[in-house]
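Re: [ENG-882] Designed sequences occasionally contain unexpected residues at chain ends

Forwarding the minimal case from QA. Structure tokens:
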């Protein structure tokens, strides 16, 4: 059997009051809403597990933003999916094994919105129009007092290089699945940074507007074509682990 193709799973944090209002939330620490927490728990149960899209034992690393909303999202995913498939001492040990893979990473923090923190795009554009400043796009113009598109691309390019060198290149060099170490990476972060990451993954300049959407609590996936690290791709749909499902059914 051929070794698995490495993947990067992208999960945006759950809903917050500011994400509901469309306000730019960078450095401000906003908690998840009650509905946001419930939806993330449902995501953990539905998409994470030995027979699900995200298989905990296949994860080499879990990168999470330092913001509270992202870390809370990861905590809920661990409780419901990443480490919640066994009860008692076995379940607690499973969670501990998952938590060893967690790295809190500044390079997956949200875009620094600077002067536009807490404001909506509509409000920003109206103010700029009133001042005769012309239209505004974060992808093209960045944020005064915050980050530019180039600064965002620089930190994400460094992150991508780290993922490929540490986890994906060694896995792609393997020819037998039995010898392939865990190689998937999970990134729990924010809307703009994850869309930028997907765009840079395939070498696109984010200043051209990646035209990608990722809702609060949404899940995306990055991988490669032809098991070739020189052919990065955005995975539009992933298959479930059928053999694990069939094995579980056979034991009943």
């Amino acid at each position: 059997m051929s070794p698995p193709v490495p993947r990067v799973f992208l999960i945006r944090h759950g809903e917050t009051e500011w994400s509901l209002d469309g306000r730019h939330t960078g450095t401000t620490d906003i908690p998840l809403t009650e509905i946001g927490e419930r939806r993330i728990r449902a995501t953990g149960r539905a998409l994470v597990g030995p027979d699900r899209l995200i298989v905990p034992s296949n994860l080499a690393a879990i990168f999470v933003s330092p913001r509270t909303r992202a870390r809370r999202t990861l905590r809920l995913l661990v409780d419901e999916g990443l480490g919640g498939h066994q009860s008692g001492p076995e379940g607690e040990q499973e969670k501990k094994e998952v938590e060893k893979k967690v790295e809190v990473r500044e390079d997956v923090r949200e875009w620094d919105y600077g002067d536009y923190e807490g404001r909506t795009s509509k409000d920003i554009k109206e103010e700029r129009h009133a001042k005769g400043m012309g239209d505004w796009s974060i992808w093209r113009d960045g944020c005064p007092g915050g980050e530019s598109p180039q600064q965002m691309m620089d930190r994400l390019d460094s992150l991508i290089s780290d993922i490929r060198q540490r986890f994906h290149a060694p896995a792609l060099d393997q020819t037998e699945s039995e010898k392939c170490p865990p190689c998937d990476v999970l990134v729990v972060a924010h809307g703009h940074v994850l869309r930028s990451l997907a765009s840079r993954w395939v070498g696109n300049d984010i200043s051209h507007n990646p035209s990608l959407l990722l809702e609060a609590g949404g899940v995306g996936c990055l991988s490669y074509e032809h098991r070739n690290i020189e052919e990065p791709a955005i995975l539009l749909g992933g298959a479930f682990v059928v053999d694990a499902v069939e094995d579980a059914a056979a034991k009943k």
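QA comment: On inspection the terminal residues look reasonable. The first helix runs from residue 17 to 21. Proposing we downgrade this to a documentation issue.
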